[in-house]
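lol ok so funny story. i was supposed to be doing the assay writeup but got distracted and ended up predicting the structure for this chain instead. priorities right. anyway since i did it might as well share w the group, maybe its usefull for someone
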Amino acid sequence: MSLSRRTAARSVRMLGVTAASAALALSASGTALACDITEFSAAAACDGTKGVITVTDKDATHVPAVVTVFLENNGADLRQVGKEQTVTGSKKGVAVSFAEDWEPNAEYRVHVVAVKGKKTLVDADITPNVTTPSKACAADDTSIPTTTPSSTPSSTPSSSSSQTAAPPAGTATPSPSPSDSSGDTAAPPAPASNAPSPAAQESNLAETGANSNTGLIVGIAAVLVVVGGGAVFFGMRRRGASHR
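and the output, tada:
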């Protein structure tokens, strides 16, 4: 076999091995895109004066997951917090909130179940458990102001019961002037009380991320496998022809 044929056969074999390795790597990366418990996180926070447990799903494959939260006491479930909620994640993350008037330094267990078709992808707890802050949510200290309207005294004209002496003859009698009454003063209206309305809780924020690239990855891997196999077959054929 000449040097050029040996070099060509070796190059073809190397191309086939490289294509097969690339196909395996792409296949593995496609498997890594599946839903996993590490794509879920949870934290305790305050929504105004109310406490909440927030769970975030960053699963880019958009597999629906059922989330359940439990209050823990010495490693055992004390009670379930509200009802379980279903969340469909995205690459940017989708969060759901559980209303809970949590106490400082309390511990909560968050369980996630994700099923695709007949295959269970996730059935595990988010680790570690959620521990609430050492300070509770601020209480609402706003009080409704009350104002007592001031009383307005009414003036009542007094009538004179004394008798005046008759003027002497030939003297003009002055006519009495009417007196102004100030007793009709209107009372000021009572100011309206300003009662703060409680903040509305935000829940079930849904967000849709980009579609999965699993189909494209599998297609590229198949093409590389075909190219590698053809290259190996071509090299072996040329090698057999040279031996003849």
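The chain has two helices and nine strands. The first strand starts at residue 40 and ends at 47.
back to the writeup now i swear
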